[in-house]
Specification:
Layout (H helix, E strand, L loop, with lengths): L9 E8 L2 E8 H4 L7 E9 L2 E19 L7 E16 L7 E9 L5 E3 L3 E4 L14
Antiparallel strand pairs: 1-2, 3-4, 4-5, 4-6, 6-7, 6-8
């Protein structure tokens, strides 16, 4: 038991396979990352389910969006804990015509956090048009 105190700090990842969950452990020192991820091309666009927020990172990182109706006051948050370089989240349950302020956030495998600049969008509903298919 006295050897347990000599184990270095570890990052724990979890993934699911069928009906089981496995924990993947690796030492933080092996990653050797001392800089946070860089977020680029942060944008928003209407989506049938709400507003889609997308961005890219220069390294594998998690995906989170904080949003609210006042600048700098983020009362809502959605996230995806899977590591990715291309990030997409859909914010739903918004009031159409309301201006929302948001910022994107990503955390890399070493626990370094990066935020985008505060941005805004006006909530719009992307209406889908369905045309009948006629066969002759």
């Amino acid at each position: 038991q006295f050897l347990l105190g000599q184990i270095p700090a570890r990052v724990v990842l979890s993934f699911a396979e069928a009906n089981r969950m496995y924990r993947l452990n690796y030492p933080v020192d092996l990653v050797g990352d001392t800089t946070p991820p860089t977020l680029s091309t942060v944008s928003s666009s209407p989506d049938p389910s709400g507003t889609k927020i997308t961005w890219l990172t220069d390294e594998w990182a998690t995906t989170q969006v904080e949003y609210g109706v006042q600048p700098g006051v983020y009362t809502g948050s959605i996230q995806d804990d899977l590591y990715a370089k291309s990030h997409t989240l859909v914010v739903s349950g918004l009031t159409e015509g309301q201006t929302y302020y948001y910022r994107a956030q990503s955390v890399d495998r070493s626990g370094r956090v990066a935020f985008s600049q505060p941005l805004s969008f006006v909530a719009q509903i992307a209406h889908m048009t369905y045309l009948p298919l006629l066969r002759r």
